Amino acid sequence: MNTPTETTPSSSKFVFPRWANYLLPLVLLGGLGAGMYVPVLVGLGLNPNTLNKNYRPKQPVPYSHSLHVGQLGLDCTYCHTTVTETGFAAIPPVETCIACHNPEKEGSGVKKDSPKLAALHAAYRSGKPVKWVKVHDLADYAYFNHSAHVTKGVGCSTCHGRVDRMGEEGVHQHANLSMGWCIDCHRAPEKNLRPPSEVTNMAYTPLDDPEVIAANITNLKEAQLLVGRRVKAEYNVHNAAYMQSCSTCHR
Amino acid sequence: MNDDAPQTLSTSAHLADEPQGRPYWRSLREYADSPELREQIASEFPAYDPDELLGLSRRQFMKLAGASMALAGLTLTGCRRWPEQEVLPHNARPEGSLPGVPQDYASMIQRGGVARGVFVTSFDGRPIHVAGSPLHPDSGDAARYAAGELHSGAADAYTLASILEMYDPDRSRSVLRFNAGDGNAQQRDLKTFAKTFAAGGSRVAVLSEARSGPAADAARAAFAKAFPEGTWTTWEPLHRDAEVQGAIDAFGQAVRAQYDLSKAMVVASFDADLLTEHPAALRHARDWAKLRKSCDAGTMSRVYAISAAFTPTSSNADVHLQTRPSDTAAMLDALAQAVGVPGFSASVALKDDQQSFVDRLAKDLTKHHGASIVAVGPSQPAGVHTLAWAINQHLGNVGSTIALTAEPSGDEPRCVEALTQLVQSMKGGQVDRLLILGGNPVFDAPVDLNFKDALNNVALCAHLGLYQNETSLACHWHINEAHPLEAWGDGHAWDGTVCLQQPIILPLFNGVSAIELLATLAHDDLTAGRDLVRRAWSNLLGANFSETHWNQALHDGLIANSAAATVRPSVKGARPTGVSSPNTDIQIVFRRDPKVYDGRHANNGWLQELPEPITKVTWDNPAWISISDALHLGVENGDVIRIAIEGHELDVAVFIVPGQAPGAIVLTLGGGRTVAGRVGNNVGFNAYRIRLASGQSAHAAAPTATVTKTAQHHALATTEVHHLINTQQLDANWIGKRDGTDATARMALDARLGQPGGEGILVKQASFADYQNNPDFATDGAHGDVMLQLYDAPLAAEFKARADELKAQHPDAVADGWEPAKQFNDKHAWGMTIDMTACTGCSACIVACQSENNIPIVGKDQVMMSREMQWLRIDSYYRGDPTATTSDKLDAVHMPVACVHCENAPCEQVCPVAATVHDTEGLNTMVYNRCIGTRYCSNNCPYKVRRFNYFDYHAKLETDSFRSTGKPGGIANKPWLNIPDQQQGQVIDQIRRMMFNPDVTVRMRGVMEKCTYCTQRIQRAKITAKAAWAKAKTAGTDADYPYVEDGAVVTACQSACPTEAITFGNLNDPKSAVAQTIRGKRSYKLLEELNSRPRTKHMGLVRNYPEA
Known about the structure:
The structure holds 2 protein chains of 2 kinds.
Chain A: H1 4-7, H2 23-46, H3 48-51, H4 65-71, H5 76-79, H6 94-98, H7 118-126, E1 132-133, H8 146-150, H9 156-160, H10 179-187, H11 210-215, H12 220-234, H13 240-243, H14 246-249
Chain B: H1 11-16, E1 24-25, H2 28-31, H3 35-42, H4 50-54, H5 58-75, E2 86-87, E3 103-111, E4 114-123, E5 126-132, H6 142-146, H7 157-160, H8 162-166, E6 175-178, E7 185-188, H9 190-198, E8 204-208, H10 214-226, E9 231-234, H11 241-251, E10 255-259, E11 266-270, H12 281-293, E12 302-307, H13 312-315, E13 319-322, H14 325-339, H15 352-367, E14 372-376, H16 382-394, E15 402-406, H17 415-427, E16 433-437, H18 441-444, H19 451-455, E17 460-465, H20 470-474, E18 477-480, E19 489-492, E20 498-501, H21 514-521, H22 529-541, H23 547-556, E21 566-567, E22 587-591, H24 605-608, E23 617-618, E24 623-625, H25 627-633, E25 639-645, E26 648-656, E27 664-668, E28 705-713, E29 717-718, H26 730-739, H27 742-753, E30 765-767, H28 768-773, H29 796-809, E31 830-835, H30 844-852, H31 860-864, E32 873-880, E33 890-897, H32 906-910, E34 916-918, E35 924-926, H33 936-940, E36 947-948, H34 959-962, H35 984-987, H36 990-993, E37 1008-1009, H37 1015-1034, H38 1052-1056, E38 1062-1066, H39 1073-1077, E39 1083-1084, E40 1096-1099, E41 1101-1103
Parallel strand pairs in B: 8-9, 8-16, 11-12, 11-14, 12-13, 16-17, 17-18, 22-27, 24-26, 30-41, 31-40
Antiparallel strand pairs in B: 1-32, 3-4, 4-5, 6-7, 6-18, 10-15, 15-21, 19-20, 23-29, 25-26, 25-28, 31-38, 32-33, 34-35, 36-37, 39-40
Helix pairs in contact in B: 10-21, 10-22, 11-16, 14-15, 14-16, 26-27
């Protein structure tokens, strides 16, 4: 056993140093981490909550819903007139804005000199439309129709959130608009329905419903279910099988 | 399997043997039961070679895989929001406009000087779909539309495909000045052209395609005034010279026949394709169908047809005879004799089959005095037309089934005569300036006129056209024309109704219309199209012209009740046709091409890829030849023959057509364009090369043609045996292997297609007499029953009772308390019927479907591999002896087949990802975003109606994509530019993209698709009805929850169909039209014994054969 390798310190380069003992667990750990890295990155990256929720592009005109709706009390359908008739809740034409914000000298335009309205006034003068940036952008193979929802008691705020609190920074996406999110409601619409007369009410709560008050219900969930079931029956909202049919949303 | 296989079959050799075929067959190869065809049918994806993929080397595979990974990583394709999109609202929204709601505008499109009424669907300012106008006398019926019986207008394939033409990126985009020497061109503008034109010599000639309408007439008059020395010539290659001349000879004045087939119990067509070729074909087809469908009520018309080869009309005739075109005249002579036209005598010797045809016809005509029509086609010489008028008058038809109106072009020289004169004066140097308004005379003028050479003698010639074509290149100037969907104009329908053409979109390439160009050149004070039309109309209507009238016309697309007044001249005497049979072996018949018309639609991919109604050939126009001539020449499908007429030669591939008259070769005009565009260049064969001024149509005076075989072969892409519903795989291949007996397979096959001499179960056909004796012929012997119900009975009352009864009888079928799922019991249960008695095979439905559903074209090579994408196909079956030329021995049947929406769908059961599933209203839905492309569904579909996107077909626009390369698989078999497919969004042409229907997903590569029953139209109708109901309810009105009204959903195919053969609607609505037809005696389920329970039912074919 008296071999030189064992006794000669100079030959210690052939011996693994002490720290090498940690190498294997480190490599294993690193490998495990790298292996996790891709799925986690992809998983989180593709999550609609990451991609879409709170998406808030910069708009050409810093229009404040919080001012117009929240403070001045404009109804949603004052501008988005087509919402009960068509698939799109169309962005209002420039002339709707100009009704109040007329830039002409003799006109009695509100804030006619405000630089914030420059893009709007330019559109009015040139006849070329304002280029708004689309916030709620569904996949092209999904066909959403506003009129089908709004006329049957799906409130604006249910999907778009409290737009009346979104200010000059622009509207942001409230829900993630994933298919799972759509299907959640299509499975059980009663969780979200409200009387169609209340759809544009931003501050709606089922607790104010006369039937709920009469039944003395104070739990929000219970109140919603009571109202939701009633609206569902009254308005012939389809059963889950119909609402989950592929052709309901995909053409 | 190589793609040449279908063409190199020894068809003729097989036919020479004792045939062992079925009573019904779709092609001669099927009839001959060739082993090659069996193999093709047995493989679900013919010409698909899995070894090709295995042949990919490891290195290639790594390269591809690595590249795609790297690209994915570089761009993080998935891991980001998709690109920002802008929303551009109107500045001032027009009153009544709702973004995202398509609107229909009434307009018209002219072809050959006849206005066709259209409704153009515009989506947010983009026209996306053209349909027929229900208000127009040809395509619709204003009275029935108003009464709610008719919901849409019909259209022909050309009109439906005009939307693709408008968005064609190959259209001419500017005014061009061509250099004299090198043929290069510079861009100029209209002003410069007008200046140059004004500076030319005084002798101006205009050569125009046929144009009608008050504004067109006014423009012509104004031009004539501005250029007093000018001449005006009208040229249409598909002219009706002989017809007009025949009427003049008969009546002493030019009249036009307005046939009313809804009153004609006997229709005799002498070489006339009344149902598809005639300018008023849509109206004829609608009227014809009325007296065909009435077989259910106990009356039925009888149609006799003579033609050289099958046409949609003769293939639907009860008695048809294919004979050489020159014999038609003799047969008409014999008919005149037989019905006893006073003062007529001729001695004619007919062959037996011809004599028997004439005898039967004469008997029927005499029986139905004043309720028949004898029609002669435009290819027959004037003498035949003249005699037909005498016969019609003698039979009391004139004034009863045939109304006469004045022929607008009557006082002008006939087309050929006029063009000959023009060419002579051009050659004589008597023309300084030539203005060619549309058309393509360099390509389609009679070849012996040498029109192109004559152009050299003209100092300044200019051509107005949608495309730069052969004629523009031979001219000095080219002016880009506005498409009819982009410009104001007007026109006359065949019956004279004044129609208005309004632009649906601004000209995409700043083109001008013919009337605008004429106004500019004539220095008119008005040059805008709208002003010109309004001025012409106010002059025409005088005091009657008001803003209200104008707006009404704009709304309707026409002036109601403005048809031309009828005239009542009478025929003076009757004389024999004077056509003697020529002593040539072969007669050439020139026909309109059902796909490209006279060649003008050559760059329209939808039309090029449309299977020709009889031969089902796509991307070509072969010469049709009879079996005996093919045997004589020793040619097979695709072999090239050389036809020589007076030194003019044409090399053309042949296609052997069953039932064709020996000694007649049919050529369709319009193929072989060389300057058409990326789609149409060098597709087909140019039959104009042998069409002489004296031989515009086939008759006795036609010059002698000689035909020889060449050594060349040209692969033809025919779909006649694609997607065969067949059980040949049940044959030895399948059951045979399984249980070792061929007998089972034979039995199954016999059951489907019928034993020799017996009826099968695919095509249900009966004679009118048999139908009256046995109204249940279509369902006799059917095996299916309602024992196994997936859904609760759709037809509430009767079917439910029957289902309950059966459930009681067979308690075990309702196993373990199983009940039909109640939730699948919706207010709507969609269903369709397709009436084979009314289907003419015109194929308009295919184009309508293609337009509505964003269906791509795939190119010739892909078609050869059975990869055509059209959701709807028309199976044409023949019954009998293919060499026979009479209806006694050979019959043809057209059967449209699209997805039948099985309730118990075989496709759904095999999809591993549930990408094809049912919805609650009975639609077999296809979820594109779920599909992973296994193609199991297509394999398991007994009807063969599913289509797979092998490539990003929409993205291919390179010329080579549509060409046959001659190599197996061809270039189109390779990914685009040989790199993996691009994302569609970046590759699809920007202009073509505007045409897509935004309500239908544009499918990607690797996705299966098929007929959806136009689910987008269903959804739109439902949402509209329900939202209106809910709004009314919120407002306090209490109405019943709505059905979608019958007629609120019209599928694209249904809308296009001129005979209303397709009925679609809600089976749960007892009042709906489809609820009636689906319970009709003739309705049967295709392949019922499979228990697939199709929602689409076909309605059996009834033919009114005369008693023997």
